[in-house]
Design a protein that fits this description.
The complex is a heterodimer of chains A (374) and B (278). Chain A is an alpha+beta fold. Chain A folds into 2 domains: 108 residues, no CATH class; 207 residues, no CATH class. Chain A has 7 helices and 15 strands. The longest helix of chain A has 35 residues. Chain A is extended and about 95 Å long. The termini of chain A are far apart. Chain B has a domain of 188 residues: Diaminopimelate Epimerase, Chain A, domain 1 (Roll). In chain B, strands 1-2-3-4-6 form a 5-stranded mixed sheet, sandwiched between helices. In chain B, a hairpin with a 4-residue loop joins β3 and β4. Chain B is elongated and about 100 Å long. The two termini of chain B are 28 Å apart. Chains A and B meet through β9, β10, α5, α6 and α7 of A and α7 and β5 of B. β10 of chain A pairs antiparallel with β5 of chain B, so a sheet runs across the interface.
Chain lengths: 374, 278
């Protein structure tokens, strides 16, 4: 039986290959050889096809097993159904390097073996309709992510002093996060009541003239590839906050970009994600159209009609470094855009420092005011 | 210049003996109407009243009405008043205390002119302002007798107040002595304003600690080349105009403080004036 997992091995020394973002090539840690994505794709085409077939066979076998279980359902009374439930959503694979059994989430498409550390790709996860359309390769390395996190702590006035020193990075992983990229068009038709106010003096009187206007603006705003995180494992706020990505560096999908990183397939449907894309498109269109109603002292919205026409959807994997740290028993999760280096994450607030700064600011101002007023 | 004016005036006065003002108290009239505004009896009554008030307070109360003061002097109506006052040796007592109301009908000018220490004490600048108010409303309605009666009566009132030691003068409020300690409002400002500023700054610091935020807009993904504004219409509906009277400092007429100081402004000739139009 063919293995369901592909290991990209160095053609020169059979060492594991990893995709290096800075060179854009797959590199061997052992002999230092490097290969382009195209070279590796050509070399491992057959192996990948075999892995996809093996995945399909395994799925068929699994289905047969389920049927058997149903047939024999009335004969045996097991101690509980939780065995099956426990295994729900998980799949077992064998590492082609060391033979260890890997229990992986069914959405996992790329990982590394916890025993031998070799990068492992499960091409079957991305077979046929599940295959992403495109991908942005990692540009920044793990070291870049660690440096960015250290820099992120700088200048944060309310960060507990011990946090930067005492906390340690528990886990750092480069993840190709599945995103749906939505194209669309939003039509906004809005009506406002606006006023312009003029003032002049005539004799002993001040004349205040208020002109009232009915303002109407209607516009069409086109959107290209609004990204919405399609993985339930990734926190939406973090994935939103690492935007934007530079789509000019987008390439066609190939599993050859995955070695060395984690990758998941989507588990949130297009329909669910489309709502978020629609919401963002509507908000943006309304804001842009509203901005054109300028030059008025007041501008009050009276009526609004917004229509979204959905366009194409692309399935893409986008590079994100996830860094997890722990401090005083609490986890802190950070995310860095693997292409642009934008790092985000919530930090703990030292309330002592908060009130310290409060006093540092308030007291001198109060003293100056007291001097001026007394 | 001054001499020329006086010469001119004396010549004119010589021709206008009918005006009645004279240096001799026994033969004099306190009211002179060269413009013919008053009837004979009205003139007599007013003159009697003015004389009675003058004698009572030992401070002359006079009125001179002419068609155009420019026919007598080349200067202002205040110069005319002073010239008349001096030429006819008006005023009572050693200090020649008195007050003269001069009316010039050509351009409806008036001048209130006081002379002598006691007259200045009784007719302060503020007192003259109030005195003018008493007759101006009548004069503006061509009520000459009413206005002149009010003038004489008000002169009497002002002199009575002065006699009692309380001349009508602008009330100047002295600033209240500062209370020891802090005003509660100031104290609240000193506490609240720094707290609000400090809280705003600290909240900004706190916002820097939370950067994993949901996106509500998609501005980075707008295709500017395809986006367009289809309708841009600004329809004028109506116009409202609100007229607000501009309140000026002197509209109030009563300036408790910070305005003109109280007392009487006396010029180099020893006269004090209040001039204007009626």
């Amino acid at each position: 039986m063919a293995s369901q997992i592909t290991n990209y091995q160095c053609p020169a020394c059979t060492g594991p290959l990893q995709y290096a973002g800075d060179s854009g090539k797959l590199e061997c840690e052992y002999c230092g050889s490097s290969f382009t994505v195209q070279e590796i794709e050509a070399l491992f085409e057959e192996k990948e096809e075999a892995a996809i077939e093996a995945t399909a066979e395994a799925a068929a076998e699994e289905a047969a097993e389920v049927e058997e279980q149903i047939d024999s359902d009335g004969e045996y009374e097991t101690s509980g159904d939780y065995w099956d439930l426990e295994g729900e959503g998980l799949k077992a694979y064998n590492c082609p390097s060391c033979g260890a059994e890997l229990i992986l989430d069914e959405t996992t498409a790329a990982t590394s073996c916890p025993y031998c550390g070799n990068p492992s790709i499960i091409p079957g996860v991305f077979s046929q309709t599940l295959k992403p359309d495109c991908l942005i390769p990692f540009k920044l390395s793990k070291d870049d992510a660690v440096r960015a996190l250290k820099n992120y702590y700088k200048g944060k006035k309310l960060l507990p002093k011990a946090f930067a020193d005492q906390n340690h990075i528990e886990e750092i992983k480069g993840v190709y996060v599945p995103f749906w990229l939505f194209d669309g068009q939003a039509d906004a038709d809005m009506q406002f009541h606006g006023t312009r106010v003029y003032s002049s003096v005539r004799g002993d009187y001040q004349l205040t003239t208020t002109e009232h206007y009915r303002i109407r603006r209607a516009g069409t705003v086109d959107f290209n590839m609004i990204p919405v995180d399609a993985s339930s494992k990734m926190p939406d706020n973090h994935m939103d906050a690492v935007e934007p990505f530079d789509y000019s560096q987008m390439v066609d999908f190939s599993t050859a970009y995955l070695p060395g990183y984690m990758a998941n397939k989507y588990d949130v449907s297009v329909e669910e994600c489309a709502k978020r894309a629609d919401e963002r498109a509507i908000n943006s269109a309304v804001s842009m159209v509203q901005q054109t109603a300028s030059g008025y002292a007041t501008c009050v919205l009276e009526a609004k009609r917004v229509n979204v026409r959905r366009g194409g959807v692309k399935y893409a994997l986008l590079p994100v470094w996830m860094l997890s740290t722990r401090w005083r028993g609490q986890n802190y999760l950070f995310a860095m855009n693997g292409q642009t280096g934008k790092l985000i994450g919530d930090l703990p607030v030292d309330m002592g420092r908060f009130w310290g700064w409060f006093a540092k600011i308030a007291l001198p101002i109060a003293a100056i005011m007291a001097l001026l007023m007394y | 210049m001054r001499k020329k004016i006086l010469v001119c005036l004396l010549l004119c006065m010589a021709l206008c003996l009918g005006m009645g003002l004279s240096a001799s108290a026994q033969e004099s009239y306190n009211i002179s109407d060269a413009a013919g505004l008053l009837g004979a009896q009205e003139l007599v009554n007013l003159d009697e009243n003015a004389k009675a008030v003058s004698e009572h307070y030992n401070c002359g109360v006079y009125v001179v009405i002419v068609d155009d003061y420019r026919g007598y002097v080349r200067g202002s109506i205040a110069d005319f008043s002073e010239a008349v006052y001096k030429s006819y040796n008006l005023g009572l007592g050693e200090e020649k205390n008195g007050i003269l109301l001069a009316l010039s009908m050509a351009e409806r000018d008036y001048d209130l002119c006081a002379y002598g220490d006691w007259a200045h004490y009784a007719f302060t600048d503020y007192g003259k302002d109030r005195l003018a108010e008493e007759f101006l409303d009548n004069f503006r309605n061509n009520d000459w007798v009413g206005g002149l009666n009010d003038y004489v009566a008000s002169c009497s009132s002002l002199m009575e107040m002065a006699k009692n030691g309380n001349p009508l003068d602008q009330i100047i409020y002295e600033p209240e002595p500062e209370k020891p300690g802090w005003d509660p409002v100031e104290l609240m400002l000193i506490v609240l304003v720094p707290c609000i500023i400090a809280f705003a700054v600290c909240s900004m610091f706190r916002a820097q600690m939370k950067t994993a935020n949901k996106q509500y807009y998609a501005m980075d993904y707008v295709d500017q080349s395809q986006s367009r504004l289809r309708v841009k219409s600004d329809q004028f509906l109506t116009r409202n105009v609100v007229r607000t009277l501009i309140r000026r400092d002197d509209d109030d007429g009563f300036r408790p403080s910070g305005g003109r100081p109280g007392g009487t402004s006396i010029n180099a000739g020893g006269f004090s004036h209040k001039s204007g139009k009626f």
